[in-house]
Amino acid sequence: MPRRDDIKKVLIIGSGPIIIGQACEFDYSGTQACKALRGLGYQIVLVNSNPATIMTDPGMADATYIEPLTVQVLTKIIEKERPDALLPNLGGQTGLNLSSQLAKTGVLAKYGVRIIGVEADAIEKGEDRIIFKETMKRLGIDMPRSAPAFSVAEAEKVAAEIGYPVVVRPAYTMGGTGGGFVYNVEELRVIASRGLSASMVGQILIEESVLGWEELELEVVRDAKNQMITVCFIENVDAMGVHTGDSYCVAPMLTIDPKLQAKLQDYSYRIVEAIGVIGGTNIQFAHDPGTGRVVIIEINPRTSRSSALASKATGFPIALVSAKLAGGLTLDEIPYWRDGSLEKYTPSGDYVVVKFSRWAFEKFKGSIDKLGTQMRAVGEVMSIGKTYKEAFHKAIRSLENGRHGLGFAKDFNRRPLSELMTMLNEPSSERQWIMYEALRKGATVEELFAKTYIKPWFIRQMKELVELEERILQFKGKELPDDLLVQAKKDGFADKYLGRLLGVAEAEIRGRRKKLGCVEAWDALPVSGVENAAYYYSTYNRPDRVPSSSRKKVMVLGGGPNRIGQGIEFDYCCVHAAFALREAGYETIMVNCNPETVSTDYDTSDKLYFEPLTVEDVLAIYEKEKPEGVVVQFGGQTPLNIAGELAAAGVLILGTSPDTIDLAEDRDRFRQMMEKMGIAMPESGMAASFEEARQIAARIGYPVMVRPSFVLGGRGMEVVHDDEMLKQYVNAAVDLAPERPILIDRFLANAVEAEADALADGVDAFVPAVMEHIELAGIHSGDSACAIPPVTLSERHIKTIEEYTLRISRELKVCGVMNIQYAICEDKVYVLEANPRASRTVPLVSKVCNVAMARIATRLMLGAKLADLNLRPKTIPHIGVKEVVLPFNMFPEVDPVLGPEMRSTGEVLGMAPTFGLAYFKAQQAAQSPLPLEGTVFISVTDNDKPFMLEAARKFQELGFRIKATVGTCTFLQQNGVKAELSYKVHEPQRPNIVDEIKSGEIQLVINTPIGRLSTTDDAYIRKAAIKYRIPYLTTTAAARASVVGIAEHRSGGADVRSLQSYHQDIR
Predict the structure, then answer these.
(1) What SS3 state is found at 1017?
(2) Dihedral sign of CA atoms 800, 804, 807, 813 in order
(3) DSSP states of 745-763 as a string?
(4) pLDDT above 50 for 774
(5) Computed from CA positions of residues 379, 384, 388, 393, in that sequence, does the dihedral angle turn out positive or negative?
(6) What is the SS3 assignment for 865?
(7) How crowded is the C-beta side of 315, counted as CA atoms within 13 Å?
(8) DSSP summary character for residue 1055
(9) Which of 50, 143, 739, 883 could covalently link to 922 via disulfide, CB atoms 3.0 to 4.6 Å apart?
(10) pLDDT digits (tens, 9 = 90+) for 142-175
(11) Structure pTM?
(12) Pairing between strand 9-13 and 43-47?
């Protein structure tokens, strides 16, 4: 069937901000869909609230709306743009739920919009647990025994019938939000109530436990002719009980009988045919190896995290193909490199792919490192090798957690076997490393299988690695025999790890194996669905099969796995660098190992190497391709960490020199430079012991900000109030960086923070805009909301910031892009830090100011001069407000307060003519919409009370009822604000504040933490607000911004406008 001619304009809904369970794989699928549909000649209207994505660049769609993803907003956009069709299955769970709501409320019918790709009732069949169960029953496919519940009492009844343990699964959610395993009625009450509040329809399923069964996934694609193919068979190495987003998995299936694979494929085809999905579907099964029983767990009638993985693992771009199928094409009209056209596709390849997750438990004080049915991972890596051992080892060294192998992590090697076995009772993020040491200490394969349910085959492979490592260790301080070195490289051991085992430098190992002719070789992974495309992976198990051209080339190093502090923003920069290099006539080479991203899409660069970002792997590619230079300033901390070693090995680094980057990171050297230039910085000192730290703190005066040197995302940063807290910090800090001291700065209380991004060519610099933070100093810049252009900063301070930025970038001879952070305290501008690399604000500035920062920076690195690029300051007639999204709902045990350590996973952007409207939109987009009426609860510290007064008065003027705890209530009443008393939990009177939150009496919570006391004091209020989904604010600055936003929104909300039309107004 040729493309559909009955539609001209297609609406694509994106997935919104990055949260745990829904990350940049949807930027990848949305970007592919835009490419596919525009290629077929359709006009595209794209809606997404996440500014850090490639898909929201004005060039990707014909009209791009960076607007909150709500039914009201989408209705306005549909009314304005009048699309003929809606593609719902590329925006993750968010896009699917919204499409389903737009269909149900009659909006689509009213404006004549058709859903393409997946019918509205197909969404219900896949997502509504009751309808899904009926469909499976009709098809004769077994499911775990289960029943729905709409209240905790119903859940108790169902669980009693099924028998514990049971699983709680909320409907219409993703990432296992709100769900979990429960072993008794008390646990059930907690998790069922959490699940009911997480579900869009207040429905949960109570299900028989299949804990410990094999978890198997298929990615299936179906077209309008009912032709079906299986793209990928994925085997989860972690058994049922660990969420697939946290599970470590392999493709193809390595231990599953082909007969069972055929049975799963037959089931999958029956399911997608019955549900009627056009495009990709992910189907998850559980298999009991004991009895052979197979049950279906769930289906995702949309592109998902697994489909991004399956796409990258097989070279089959599922989102691209799904979009073409939705546009009316069928599989027999799309090319396939092996057999002509895609309906003949079968997964093939003589390689193994491993996916491993990355977590961020260390970011959340009080979080428990335990994996279950609620997803906790913040990122993942994928690696490709010729053997399982090689691919597994490559995945381990891709994680960038400072470990290049499986042995000697933390103190596991020093613990007795009995202790290690106890640690394996619960799955955790450290499980593979603990198992490795347990095997070394004599644990048997059977014992480990009984503990972990990980299949014996995988444990035996690990045991063979342990045995080889033990043989290597016998040669510590001696010459390693050649055959052992070659075997270790074939099994994937990293040079660096071998160096550590033998007590020699990494370079020495590399030199030795090169002499033996033991070098990395490469092979191609061909791409299906397009003509002549492939990407590449290394192996020590085959000869090299990849040619390299003699064109001028530049290599771009990507950002590796997503993590808190380094996310999609850096991938955005890498992708733009590749585009700009291609435009400048260079062959582009991308190196990255993150399967979720656009940078690892087959056509972003001319050549993609799907490899770990380590010195060993990057050097090998550099020596093979011989590029003119390497770009390291776009991938966040990842490439910067190896830039020095690469430069020492003779690699030419383009743009800002590694020494400059080092100078800016080295606080002492940077401070000396600032003093020489006469630019103020907060007083500070460096300490290597508690005594030194105490003396510095005494000189500067408390409170002080302490942090380790050289970090990204504010790891280990804290505001310290007295000697005792300082002692605790110093005692704990040893672990962070033993050879590097801690830094102690004066904490600028109540200072306004600002930052500026600059483009520089080594001589000159240009600042497109200054950003003003809404939260005051002390909150990490990555977690603070911010406004561009600034709202309250005086013209004088903005000029000072611009002037300092230009002077610093000239002094540092920055070439490319740079970010500098400032604080304004008592009418004086201080420099906090300078980062001569891309920062997470690059996409934000690019979108709001219409300046393609990353592309221009790339041209500057190639030698262009700012003077020739015709950049001039422009007047920006609108305001953009960035707001962050925090994952506290996934860590119910953690107090949800902000501080100097970054904790947000993603961000949204609200754009409007005024600050208030933009801030209101940003809160809506971050899924904590501000109330327009009702009751505000206020409980703030004594220091914050004066700052809160003006906001409280304004809330009263707007007709809000105000409730407050005793101290705040008295203060407000004394100052003429009508406030009613609310009780804290430790006070005897009921109902208390938590009762009021539970019963829906409170619409907004404003509660600031009390320095040292807060940890015990008010955390329960903030946790209750999260659980019952009441918007909560933990700073007075946010409270003031909120009341302005509510007032402006009530006197006429902001209209929806495309990014393209905002850009036309910039003069």
Answers:
(1) helix
(2) negative
(3) EE--TTPEEEEEEEEEESS
(4) yes
(5) negative
(6) coil
(7) 28
(8) P
(9) 883
(10) 999 988 888 889 999 999 999 889 888 887 665 5
(11) 0.91
(12) parallel
Tens of pLDDT along 1015-1026? 446 778 878 887
- The pLDDT, as a whole number, for residue 172 is 63
Q: Is the pLDDT of residue 176 over 70?
A: no
* Average pLDDT of span 211-231: 96
Residue 1014, pLDDT above cutoff 50: no
Place of tokens 């020495």: 508
- E-strand spans in 146-248? 146-149, 166-170, 180-182, 204-208, 214-222, 228-236
Give the Cβ contact number of residue 18 at 10 Å: 29
pLDDT-based confidence at residue 1034 (cuts at 50, 70, 90):
confident
Token couple for 916: 């208030």
Integer Cα distance of 918 and 788 in angstroms: 10
pLDDT at position 888 over 70: no
Q: Using CA atoms, how far apart are residues 87 and 791, in angstroms rounded to an integer?
A: 38
The first and second tokens of residue 335, run together, are: 């090319």
Looking up tokens 């791009």 gives: 64
Sign of CA dihedral 430, 432, 435, 440: negative
Which residues are paired to 295 by β-bridges? 286
Q: How far apart are CA 410 and CA 432, in angstroms?
A: 13
pLDDT in tens, 637-648: 899 999 999 999
Strand runs (DSSP E) across 24-93, as ranges? 43-47, 63-65, 85-87
Taking CA atoms, 1021 is separated from 253, 1002, 1024, in Å, by 47, 12, 5
pLDDT at res. 710: 57
Element (H, E) at 876: none
Distance separating alpha carbons of residues 993 and 519, to the nearest angstrom = 66
- Write the CB contacts of 849 (distance below 8 Å, at least 6 apart in sequence): 768, 769, 788, 874, 876, 1066
Alpha-carbon distance 708 to 733, whole Å?
A: 8
C-beta separation of 797 from 829 below 8 A: yes
Question: What b/e sequence results for 724-733 when a residue is b if at least 16 CB atoms lie within 10 Å of its CB, and e otherwise?
Answer: ebbeebbeeb
Buried-exposed string 890-905: b where 16+ CB fall within 10 A, e elsewhere: bbbebbbbbbbbbbbb
Two structure tokens written together for 374: 């609620």
**Phi, psi for 281 (deg, rounded to 5):** -140, 140
Q: Give 594's Cβ-side CA count (13 Å radius).
A: 31
* Whether 971 contacts 945, CB under 8 Å: yes
Give dist(CA 773, CA 752) in Å, integer: 7
CB of 246 within 8 A of CB of 240? no
567 and 24 in contact (C-beta within 8 Å)? yes
pLDDT higher for 990 or 963?
963
Q: pLDDT tens, 487-529?
A: 999 999 999 999 999 999 999 999 999 999 999 999 999 999 9
Q: Give the C-alpha separation, 994 to 1028, whole Å.
A: 10
pLDDT tier at 738, thresholds 50, 70, 90: very low
884 strand-pairing partners: 907
686 burial level (CB within 10 Å; 0-12, 13-18, 19+): middle
Q: How confident is the model at residue 231 (pLDDT cuts 50, 70, 90)?
A: very high
Greatest CA separation found in the chain?
Answer: 84
What amino acid occupies position 432?
A: Q
Distances (CA, A) of 733 to 61, 400, 1005: 48, 20, 34
Both tokens assigned to 43: 């006009």
Assess contact for 762 and 815: CB atoms under 8 A: yes
Closest CA to 760 of 835, 839, 802, 817: 817
CB 458 within 8 A of CB 238: no
Provide the b/e sequence for 512-546 (b: ≥16 CB within 10 Å): bbeeeebebbbbebbbbbbeebebbbbbbbeeeeb
Collapsed DSSP state (helix, strand, coil) of residue 881: strand
Sorted by sequence, the CB contacts under 8 Å of residue 69 that are 6+ apart come out as 13, 14, 16, 47, 48, 49, 94, 98, 925
